[in-house]
Specification:
Layout: H1 7-18, H2 23-35, H3 37-60, H4 62-68, H5 70-98, H6 115-127, H7 130-138, H8 140-144, H9 151-183, H10 193-215
């Protein structure tokens, strides 16, 4: 079998892309730090669902059409960057509020997003990620045709590989972030650790948004 059609090679390429720090990883870490296991799991589920939608867009040709329309693709990059920056700003605000004096209103420390909002925002975060579009257009089509399987069956296998890599990589991020959140609770290893972790992720998201916008000039 030709190496370009190897599911094993596609697995390695997908893993190499997903393991790089980016919007999706930061989104899972942010919600895990703010809302714990449930919030991070909902964010992860939304991102996996967004990956499935990416495959459907690629199969329908809409992703290629976006890339052929510079104006539409630029608009998508701007929208994705602004959305990423908004998430980062919300995390920074939460981190600052957590640092308020002990007598301050505790309910304002973390504004918990509705479960459906976390899930669909995770989908939007994945769908507005330019790295995902570049991967789907540059790599995915090369593996879609296989002498061993029909295109639909091959697309299903590729989708499962993408989802599995997302679950493994972002699941590890979820576990680490949840553990850091527990460690940051009072008596858990540092009074201000959770605030610094959430603030650091928020600042990272803002920096990534600014870097993407700067490249559009």
């Amino acid at each position: 079998m030709d190496a370009s059609h190897s599911l094993w090679m596609f697995f390695l390429l997908t893993l190499g892309i997903i393991v790089l720090p980016g919007m999706d990883m930061a989104y899972v870490a942010g919600h895990a730090l703010q809302s714990g296991w449930r919030g991070g799991a909902l964010a992860l589920a939304g991102i996996v669902a967004g990956g499935v939608v990416h495959v459907l867009l690629n199969l329908s040709g809409l992703a290629a059409l976006l890339m052929l329309m510079p104006g539409a693709f630029q608009l998508m990059l701007v929208a994705g960057s602004l959305y990423l920056g908004w998430i980062g700003w919300q995390m920074l605000r939460s981190a600052w509020t957590v640092a308020a004096p002990a007598g301050a209103q505790p309910a304002a420390a973390v504004k918990v997003q509705a479960p459906a909002g976390v899930f669909f925002s995770g989908m939007a975060n994945c769908l507005l990620n330019p790295k995902a579009y570049a991967f789907m257009l540059a790599v995915f089509p090369a593996f879609l045709r296989s002498p061993e399987r029909a295109p639909l069956a091959q697309a299903l296998w590729l989708t499962l590989i993408i989802a599995a890599n997302q679950i493994v990589v972002y699941g590890a991020v979820l576990l680490v972030s949840t553990g850091a959140r527990q460690w940051g609770r009072p008596g858990g290893g540092g009074a201000a650790s959770q605030r610094w972790l959430a603030g650091g992720v928020g600042a990272l998201l803002l920096g990534m948004a600014a870097a993407t916008l700067a490249q559009l000039r």
